[in-house]
Amino acid sequence: MHISEKEIEIRYAETDQMGVVYHANYLVWMEIGRTKLIEDLGFTYAGLEASGYLSPVTDLSIQYKAAMRYGQKATVRTWIESHDRLRTTYGYEILHEDGKVAATATSEHVLVKRENFRPVSLQKVDPAWDAKYREIRKVKD
């Protein structure tokens, strides 16, 4: 299983009046983590979009464990939890600098054609990308 890591400096604008990171910012960090994972594997989401495909989120689950605050650094760990013919589920851990878990999450995505939003298999769009996801996914068939 391949795990990608991306460090995020927590900005003041990402916090609420209590000085705690606003919950929706974790979703942005997850996107940053997915992008880093894809790039680590030698692919680009921008290239996928340029080819006429999108990968919308179809399900999202996040569990908040320990608050993060302005001035801290977060590490986003991202991996392929599962990948099948039509769905890819990414797994995430967002960690404090000392390794304490701030949040865990998963996001499920389906690849669709931009023009009609009909699902399409990554195998048909990019066989090498599909093969890599199958190789590194945590949950095997």
UniProtKB/TrEMBL annotation:
Its EC number is 3.1.2.-. It is an enzyme of class 3 (hydrolase). Keywords: Hydrolase. GO terms for molecular function: hydrolase activity. Pfam families: 4HBT_2. Belongs to the 4-hydroxybenzoyl-CoA thioesterase family. PANTHER family: 4-HYDROXYBENZOYL-COA THIOESTERASE FAMILY MEMBER, NOVEL THIOESTERASE SUPERFAMILY DOMAIN AND SAPOSIN A-TYPE DOMAIN CONTAINING PROTEIN (0610012H03RIK). This is Acyl-CoA thioesterase. It comes from Sporosarcina soli. The lineage of its organism: Bacteria, Bacillati, Bacillota, Bacilli, Bacillales.
